[in-house]
Description:
By secondary structure, this protein is an all-alpha fold. Helix content is 67%, strand content 2%. A hairpin with a 3-residue loop joins strand 1 and strand 2. The radius of gyration is 19 Å and the shape is elongated.
Amino acid sequence: MARSPTASAHYTGIAVAFHWVLAIAIICSLGVGLYMSDLPLSPMRLKLFNWHKWAGVTILVLSALRLLWRLGHRPPPDVAMPAWQARAAHATHLLLYVFFFAVPLSGWAYSSAAGFPIVWFGVLPLPDFVSPDKALAENLKEVHHVLAWLLGGLVVLHIAGALKHQLVDRDGLIGRMWPAR
């Protein structure tokens, strides 16, 4: 028996903003990452790599802020659902948070090992994680790609779950994270 969330079951405005800004940034970064990987060496590819790195660092910073916010602010009560769905939702959210950090950090480490420093928005040079090492860079590149694909799969699973609640269960779950009117 599903119950519809009430107005008090809505996430805070800050939590909603973090959710949607990160969602857009992650989806765009995954798209740019896929697109730029097959481009030949060119000024456009270099520009996209920089944008991708900037997005990754921004995602990392926003994820840290979101996690700090979440630790200090309890979410609204769960919508009634079978126990296995609640466990799956909590596990998916936990894994999303892990990948919010693992993907950008692995990209940063890869960039460092490849000898390409990250200068955030062309202004703030960030320290290298590791010294340049071609073999390590190749391994980290593969780690970054695998983690990014796993994050993409989790994003698809998260969206599918939200759509199932909206279109099949009709329990109002999406309204909890939708911007308030």
